[in-house]
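My current task is to audit a protein record that another person submitted. Alongside the sequence sits a line of tokens, each denoting a local backbone shape. Where you disagree with what is written, explain briefly why. This is what I was given:
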Amino acid sequence: PIMERFEVTRTVASGVMSIRGLTMAISAFISGVLLDRIGLRRVVVIGIILCGLGYLLTAFATEVWQLYVLFGLLMGIGGGFTFSPLVAATTKWFGGKSALANGVVLSGFGFAQILLPPLLTSLFISYGWQVCLLTLAGLSWIGGLLAWNRLHDPPSSHVQEIVAASAGSDASAVPSEPVGLSLRQAMTRRGYWIFLLIYFANALSFSTVITHIVVRATDLGIAATAAAVILTVIGVPNTVGRILVGLVANRINQRLIVSLAFLLQAPIVFTLGWITELWVFYVVGAVYGLIYGTVQPLVPTLAVGHFGGRSLGSIL
């Protein structure tokens, strides 16, 4: 739709997602710092308002540079202000069970991936570009209302008990000051850069697949509605995988699972370049979704064990 509406090449169209990803990375850091200072609810609601505003204004964009600004920059900031703070706060709330809790929270992304691609494709075919984006703006702002009423930061005493439990120490012996490393201290540790590499590699894989797989399928002559379902097929096991790994997280070697997930992701992504049949897209996509879904809930849980809860928002 972007290529057709703005008469641009695929490189220019996918560049919108690249700008969004870069902006999201920068704003995620800023939102993490703000999370540790002004609290979860304010940060997330700002992000959701910006997401809705980005969808709303993009609906009326007439030039591709406007798309880069509104969808790339504005939506990137909104995404950075929602994703990382939600994961950090969930990890603080649930500690040793945070893999399951994060799996449930992150399953929201999976459910969106299941429901929205076929819905939006149908809306686009029947009613056009603007209706799709206005629908997304409305859904975003509904989420903002729910977030304002429901999101709360855990009390500092709770965070200290969680960190103590993760370290295997007596919660009653936890000092009153915040437990864990500051962002500056964390950045001097090798583990910080390993986590950063894990997130980078995982996002590189997923963003590439999600941005290009439907267009790749339509290039092969597959109908747009059937191609959009590939994202749904990826989303179902992705959602299931996030919850399942959370259920068994305390009984498995979490580092081993993350390593195996990456080892399995690589050949699957490589295979996608040679698939020509729709049913093979569905099968390989389902396996990829399941494997990708196992990584995200585990990384924050591993991080709180390494760095504590003092600056977890800015670290994540």
